[in-house]
Design brief:
991 residues, mainly beta, 48 strands
Length: 991
């Protein structure tokens, strides 16, 4: 009977862990977790269920360090064991799996981008609010940004020495300063590590690609009777990525799931027939170009070119027939369905970047006496990435080929004459280019921190302090290879026979400056000399240097006491200076080409030396800027109740005053409390806060780029100079963050079980966003005087008309939902089995995520459940672990709920309303979710050596197609696993 009760207890507890989530919840935080909502991270000793009673622990949701303090802001903790069990080559991957982390960037995101600047950047995002609204710290300290937006790169952190990660899922600006709107992720290192440990790991996907290897080692030792403590660590990791398969509807290395999925979009004016405007199609065939060239207009429309330049009739698919006007019957611009898919470029994007990490870290601490330590830390991190955003360099029916081009077959020349035309429109994927565009971002961080921490007596009370000064710099180089200059390409393809019968460039200026004709008619080898002309050896380059200087002092103690307990105080001040400078190459930036300082970029009369923008992509511009921040804060924890009858309660309040050199002063605050009820194990918590995010360096000082544009103003279409530039008048974003919930922590009737439910509501006003030139004009006409000051539209001299395109504080965000976390631990010795079982489940339900652009003619858009974005309605994670002294096994489930392509779509098949730009109609608006299962295990070979393995995505679940309006990536790596099944194995050694 007793055994049966134990079995029932185990079954009930297991069910409880899952009941805390929806029936199919799955995206589990790896490993053995901390108690949900518990502010004391789990002890490294697996046999201990909590930190010893006399230990004081500071978790990054609060500056208060006090025994017995339960802060009201929910915090999820992953300890070193959790991180080790997930066996990822980059700790970033483990953190990003947590349900509250939504919209993070990594090496599988932005692989289709040449110019974004975030390629290869491992940055964390809470609540889908973006990395710029998540504060990422190292030992509670700021880290210099790895991008002009100021976000950090977790790949540059010393990962082997991380003993826990605190994820604060609520606003924390009052305690920690700007950017903590979504919350805080704090990486805490082991500052007193003794001994030596190492980790060697390798793996690959089931497709035999993305081969990866990691080598990590750390050493620590005390000297001078342990007054001097030294620790060092070094790491090298390489994930080789998944290369582009090239052109056509084929995935890399046998992946069969890529189907050229896209939106087929009918013209808005034709949607009065009761049929939907949007249809999601597979096998989308772009009819504005072909792999080796296609005539796209006129009497020869539909003529494509193959081997040796031989013409043939292009297969449009779906019975499509060219009309001679550029349209194709049976198709909807720009796609047909099926046909000749050989020129498709969507599958040509790398699924994952080739990423290399090199990290070194040292900490030297010296105890002046038992109460005071000074320390010095140094951190070096270098992260290199390589990827190809797309094959070729597609030209969508925007080329003009003259009929006297000597590269044309005689039959086409004759057809031109017969049809009395002298030229035709042409599109090509430029598949004859010998190399794909390839981008090489490199980020190198150097960071030094000098600090002190300790304690002292004042007025009979003990106070503790910590202070540090930091200098950090991050140098980022983005270099693009095998990419063409537009003007040179256009000149090279416009060929003609010279007086002596040789083929030359038609433009005499181009010919005089070195132009070499390029044959783009059919599958013919590209002339190396022509390729060297259009793709000079030096491609687009961007060199950025960011520096950060910080001085911080924090003081905390318990100077007073009430009848309910000691009143804890934390206070401090901080100064921070942020600076960046970025330099683009002359062809992209538009200045200094041909100067003695730019010998690799000679002057060229074809190129625009005034504004640049000469490359096919990757046009980088010069910029620089600096701002500084001065701030001070105070935080109080006041016990309000301590009663055997009514329980215990405390009030936690904080206030921070911040002055930015660019935007003046702003206040952030929080007020919250927790109540430990007399009901066994049950407590409640609530907190509301005002949080801020200051405009970053890029938003303030973005490089000036000038191009010509047209806008509609007062019924007229006028030409304006569009000046894109940063806005130094930006104000901080202001957020109101509210969280309340309940915690059940190890009740006597079910020891080892804990659960929490927390509701959150985040509203951000004055969100910084950039508008188009026409949107700014419309807002000015509607009466927005701030935006009117950014333009001149009625100058008597029309050449003086301009619109300054820059960021403004116009938009707003609101994100509402709730988090659920549950865990159960039990010792199996009562069942006659070795070890212990740990069940854990976490989930985030996003109820609503509204974005209001604040722009005339738009409405707020709903992002919750938009699975083309980063915030599904449900994101879940669960794990079940069995650990003994000899071995361990863990099963993990990750889950994303099904959603839609857009919440603004109206789904209908017949009798559809007339489609609008705000609410388009679509045939099917359903996007599948995903369920992944991972398996890991470890075996203790001896006292010093542990072998382990991990298999991610055991079922090799394919990513869900993510249609776009063009043939781009067509998957969403922000939400879905794009790698497939991954095998990893390794060995850990320690003594």
């Amino acid at each position: 009977m007793r055994t049966r009760n134990k079995i029932m207890s185990l079954a009930v507890a297991s069910a409880c862990c899952w009941i805390a989530m929806p029936a199919y919840a799955q995206q589990a935080a790896a490993g053995t977790p901390a108690t949900p909502g518990d502010q004391t991270p789990p002890n490294a000793d697996a046999k201990a269920e909590a930190v010893p009673a006399q230990t004081v622990v500071t978790v990054s949701g609060s500056r208060i360090a006090s025994r017995g303090f339960t802060q009201p802001t929910p915090t999820t903790v992953l300890n070193a064991d959790d991180l080790a069990k997930n066996a990822q080559p980059n700790i970033f991957n483990t953190i990003a799996e947590l349900p509250a982390l939504q919209g993070s960037t990594g090496r599988t995101t932005s692989t289709n981008s040449t110019s974004s600047g975030i390629q290869g950047l491992s940055s964390l995002s809470l609540r889908g609010l973006g990395p710029i609204r998540t504060l990422t710290l190292l030992d509670g300290q700021r880290v210099v940004g790895a991008n002009v937006t100021g976000v950090t790169d977790v790949s540059q952190f010393p990962q082997l020495l991380v003993k826990r990660v605190d994820v604060v899922t609520g606003g924390a600006s009052a305690s920690y300063g700007s950017d903590a709107i979504g919350g805080v992720v704090n990486f805490v290192t082991d500052k007193k590590f003794e001994g030596f440990k190492a980790n060697v790991e390798g793996g690959q996907t089931t497709y035999h690609d993305d081969r990866n290897g990691t080598v990590q080692a750390a050493w620590g030792k005390g000297f001078m009777d342990d007054r001097l403590h030294v620790e060092v660590s070094g790491e090298f990791g390489r994930e080789k990525g998944i290369d582009s398969p090239g052109f056509g509807e084929v995935g890399p290395n046998g992946r069969s799931w890529y189907k050229n999925t896209a939106y087929q979009i009918r013209p808005l004016a034709q949607t009065n027939d009761g049929k939907p405007q949007y249809t999601v199609i597979d096998h989308a065939q772009q009819y504005q170009y072909a792999k080796y060239g296609l005539i796209t207009n006129g009497p020869l429309q539909g003529t494509a070119f193959g081997p040796g330049g031989a013409p043939y009739q292009f297969n449009y698919g779906g019975g499509g027939k060219p009309t001679g006007t550029g349209a194709v019957t049976g198709c909807v611009n720009p796609f047909c369905v099926g046909g000749d898919l050989s020129g498709s470029v969507g599958a040509g994007t790398n699924l994952a970047m080739d990423l290399k990490r090199q990290v070194a870290y040292t900490r030297v601490g010296f105890d002046i006496n038992p109460d005071h330590e000074i320390y010095l830390t140094t951190n070096f991190g270098k992260v290199e990435s390589v990827f190809s955003p797309n094959p070729g360099a597609a030209k969508n029916a925007n080329l003009t080929i003259q009929c006297d081009n000597p590269f044309l077959p005689a039959s086409i020349v004759a057809a031109c004459a017969a049809n009395k035309i002298t030229s035709f429109q042409y599109g090509t994927a430029n598949a004859e280019f010998p190399h794909n565009i390839n981008v090489h971002p490199t980020r190198q961080m150097e960071r030094v921190v000098l600090g002190a921490e300790g304690r002292f007596q004042l007025a009979g009370k003990e106070w503790s302090y910590d202070a540090y000064a930091e200098y950090g710099q991050n140098k980022t180089d983005i270099i693009v290879h095998d990419i063409s200059l537009n003007a040179r390409y256009n000149a090279a393809i416009d060929a003609v026979r010279g007086p002596n019968g040789n083929i030359v460039c038609r433009n005499p200026v181009a010919a005089a400056s070195g132009c070499v004709p390029l044959n783009i008619i059919g599958d013919v080898p590209a002339d190396p000399a022509a390729m060297a002309y259009i793709e000079p050896g030096m491609g687009p380059q961007q060199h950025t240097k960011q520096t950060q200087q910080v001085a911080s002092f924090n003081l905390h103690g318990e100077p007073f006491a009430s009848w309910a307990g000691p009143i804890a105080v934390a206070t401090g001040a901080e100064y921070r200076r942020e600076h960046y400078s970025v330099t683009g190459d002359p062809y992209g930036n538009g200045v200094s080409a041909g100067s003695p300082n730019t010998p690799d970029y000679p002057a060229d009369p074809l190129l625009n030396t005034a504004v640049g923008n000469n490359w096919y992509a990757g046009n980088y511009h010069n910029a620089s800027g600096t701002y500084d921040v001065k701030e001070a804060y105070v935080e109080l924890n006041v016990p309000m109740l301590k009663s055997a009858t009514f329980g215990e309660a405390n009030l936690n309040v904080a206030d921070r005053r911040t002055r930015y050199s660019t935007s003046g002063s702003v206040e952030s605050w929080k007020i919250g409390g927790s109540w430990k009820t007399p009901v066994d194990g049950l407590s409640f918590r609530a907190v509301t806060s005002k949080d801020v995010r200051a405009p970053n360096l890029s938003e303030l000082y973005a490089a000036a780029v000038v191009v010509n544009n047209v806008v509609s103003y007062q019924g007229n279409t006028i030409t304006v100079q569009q000046r894109t530039v940063g806005n130094t008048k930006l104000r901080p974003e202001i957020a109101r963050n509210t969280v309340f919930g309940a915690v059940l922590n190890q009740p006597k009737w079910l020891p080892g079980f804990s659960a929490s439910v927390d509701y959150f509501d985040i509203k951000v006003d004055g969100v910084i966003s950039t508008l188009s030139a026409q949107q700014e004009v419309d807002l000015c006409v509607a009466g927005n005087q701030e935006i009117c000051s950014a333009m001149v539209l009625n100058s008597a001299n029309t050449t003086n008309n301009y619109v300054t395109v820059q960021a403004f504080n116009l938009a707003s965000l609101r994100n509402k939902g709730y988090d659920v976390e549950a865990a159960y631990r039990m010792n199996l010795k009562d069942f006659g089995l070795p070890g212990r079982l740990t069940f854990r489940a976490l989930a985030t339900r996003t109820i609503s995520f509204l974005t209001d652009p604040g722009v005339v003619g738009t409405i707020p858009s709903e992002g919750a459940g938009n699975n083309l974005g980063g915030t599904p309605k449900w994101k879940g994670l669960a794990s079940q672990a069995w650990d003994t002294d000899k071995f361990g096994l863990m099963l993990t489930e990750r889950w994303i709920s099904k959603g839609v392509y857009s919440n603004e779509f109206i789904e209908c098949q017949t009798n559809c309303p007339v489609s609008t730009t705000i609410h388009p109609t679509i045939f099917n608006n359903q996007m599948k979710g995903a369920f992944y299962v991972d398996l890991g295990g470890s075996y203790k070979v001896n006292a010093k050596t542990t072998a382990y393995f991990k298999i991610d995505n055991i079922g090799n679940v394919d990513p869900v197609a993510a249609p776009q309006a063009n043939l781009s990536f067509a998957i969403n790596p922000t939400l879905y696993d794009v790698l497939g099944r991954v095998y990893r194995a390794g060995v850990r050694y320690s003594f």
